[in-house]
Design a protein that fits this description.
By secondary structure, the chain is an alpha+beta fold. It is 51% helix and 29% strand.
């Protein structure tokens, strides 16, 4: 069964959005598994994460991984911006 999900995330700045997109490009271009396919793009100032997977387990795993990576990138940026 083919499953898919779309997540739209707003960012406080264009710079943070671009940083997240650029940071995740290597993972999108060569995924660890063929069970799920991910598309990341910018749309109206938001990050759009689209995941298509062969099953719900692969869909959940991919979504969790990308959302954790995005959160980690934002945490690193926050630490770098701290005085």
């Amino acid at each position: 069964m083919k499953t898919k999900a779309t997540v739209r995330l707003k960012f406080p700045s264009e710079q943070k959005l671009q940083t997240v997109l650029n940071s995740l490009k290597p993972e999108v271009s060569s995924p660890a598994t063929t069970r799920a396919r991910t598309i990341l793009k910018e749309e109206d100032g938001s990050l759009v994460l689209r995941v298509e997977a062969n099953d719900t387990v692969a869909l959940r795993a991919s979504l969790n991984a990308y959302l954790r990576w995005i959160n980690s990138i934002l945490n690193v940026l926050e630490v770098l911006e701290a005085p």
